Structure formats: structure tokens, C-alpha cells
Give the backbone structure.
Amino acid sequence: MAQLAKKLKLKGVLLPEATAEEANLIEGIAVHPIQTLSQAVEFLQNPECLQPLPKYSIRTQPNHPPNHHDLDFSDVKGQHSVRRAVEIAVSGNHNLLIIGSPGSGKSMIAKRIPTIMPQPTLDEYLEILSIHSASGYSQEFDPKYPRRPFRAPHHTTSDVALLGGGSFPKPGEISLAHNGVLFLDELPEFKRSTLEVMRQPLEEGTVSISRSQAKITLPASFMLIAAMNPCPCGYHGDPKRPCRCSLQQIARYRSRISGPLLDRIDLHVEAPSLTIKEIQSTQGSEDSKSIRIRCQKARAQQTQRFAHKPLAYQQCNAHMTSQELKTHCSLDDAQLQLLHDAMHQLKLSVRAYDRILKVARTIADLDDSEPILEKHLLEAIQYRNLDRALF
Ligand SMILES: [Zn+2]
């Protein structure tokens, strides 16, 4: 409402105290908090009696803790390759699939991703707040401390709750995750038809909901983090516990996730079960703050690179257009050959090819390297884990 009032060039809005602070983030509109309707009447008779809230500016503070939590990456033992993949994913806003046995710490890691996410810009934060506000959830956010949403719907969540809609249309989980993270644990347990609908938002950053009278489009640009077991029993490839599944069972389980959906997940990484040594280790791992600083730095390079793009969420490597891929991901002849061979051997799709380039760009950014080097490309290729398995 405050955004609309500003657009209509109105001077100010009267709002209940509970939501006034959040509306006050919008520049150029006076926000008067009121407690009762008689206060509103009084204000209309005598505008002097109620001052607008003072404006404050949100300063970007790269080091301020983005969240409430007591969660930190220093709690995560071992899992070096997953940690690395998470860092790359957050740096470039890439989608990530973590495959591992029960107890390997997949969801423990996913829950800590918000602690390393770069702070949203004011525009991004206003989008987050307006979606949550429309759903009645904005009290989960502090207007003064911008943070990104982390949504983790269960696989039994209804399509309407997940994708949005209903007789009185409301944003679903994928819109509530806009400019943040959507975490889908146990990915193959989600209905296949539901996952297929997810392809549009993954491609376009929006979701269309068909209604009897009209079609509405809602923002839904999120980073998808998914987790799954390697097979129905969970222990395929585990060195300590035998897998009891047949090859057919494993193939059927994995085929619940379609190739086109998998193609849209930039990084696939395996989370092996921890060794006894890792479990008993008392040495703390690297903390969230150190990782976050690297992610922020890599993201800042992208913001600069894509500064001409109008929408903040498009200013990242994951959302490069094919023209931008040509400009920012040029490879030399030897690298082209390398990628060509990998595509052939791993039977990768054209879409996977683009994903590899985008991820390689982010790895090079983390390495502070303008050109993409062979090592960056090789690392990006190895995150196409599942393509070469049973699909
Ligand atoms: Zn199994």
C-alpha cells in the first residue's frame, strides 16, 4: 500500500503501528503510525497532532550478523566438498542438490546457508517484505536488519501452499522464498507434477497462477537447495553400511526427478557419511562469518558486472543470458575441447553446458581471476554428478 501511495504521488499513509516501521523503509512517503480509528479521525481534523516516523537508512554492513541464529558453519564437521559447493552456490546464486546418506548432515548444512548469504539490497528487501506482508508473515522480519528468507516446505505441503493460489489467492512457499532460499529436503518425495511446475520459476523467476477469472503472476526468484538420499534405503555408495536396493529400485527412485529439472540445478554434490575421526574431532571448522565475507566479495563483483540490469536478482552469474555467457565466459581452444569431451563422456545436455559455464565463472570470481582458467572449468564439470549416474 505504501509503495502504491508513493507511485500515486500521495503525501503519506496512516498505518497500524505493527506494520508502520516496515512501510517506513520506502523513501519519499510519510508514514503515520496509529493505534485506533479515532486517532485517525483526529489526525484528519488536525494533521499537526501526529508526526510521521523518522526515516532512517539501512546501511549495508557486510559483517553484521544477517540473522537471529545461533547456527554457524563452525558446527559442521567434515563435509569439505559440500561446504565448498555451498560457498560457490551462494556466491553466484546457483541452485544446489546435495546427495547423501541419512545422518551425513545434509539438512544441518542447508539450515546454515542463511548465515553466509549476502545481505539483500534495499530494493530486494522491499520485495521480500511486500510478499510477506501480503501473506501476513512480515512480522518475521525486522525492518532494520535486512535478511533473506529461508523457506523449507515439507514434501507433504499442498500444491497451493507451495506454488501459490487458492480461492483468495496468496503467495506460495516459492514466492515467500523470493530473493532467498527454497530448501526442499527429500526431493524425490515431492510429487513429480509439483516439481515440474517449479521449472517455470527456476527459469523465469516468476510463477503464474491460473484463476477462474484471471491469471496472476507472482515473483518467485529463489535459490533452490535440494537434498536427497542416493537410493530408497539411503546407503548406496556408503562404505560402512550395505545398500539393500536393486538397480531398478535406485533408477526408479532417481527418475522421480526429471532430467529437465535436474538440468536446472547447477551443482550436484555428494555428502559422504562422516568418518569416526571426523565425528570425534574437536577441531572447529571455519565459521560462517569468514565464508560470508568471501561470498559477499564474489557477489559484489557480479553486481558491478551486471549493474546495467534493472532487477537486483538478475545481477548474478546464475542469471546470465546467452549473450552474457559469450561475453563473460569465453574459453580458449584447449578449454573448449576439454568441455566438449566432458559433455560427450558424461552425456550432458545443452542446458548443462550453460550451467557449467556459469558455475565456472563464479569459481573464477571466488579466485579473483578475470579469465576462467582450466582448474575453474574442471571443478565446475565435476559438479554434474547425477547426470552421469543413472539418468
Ligand atoms: Zn539403497
About this structure: Strands lie at 12-16, 30-34, 96-100, 150-151, 181-184, 206-210, 215-219, 223-228, 267-271. The radius of gyration is 23 Å.
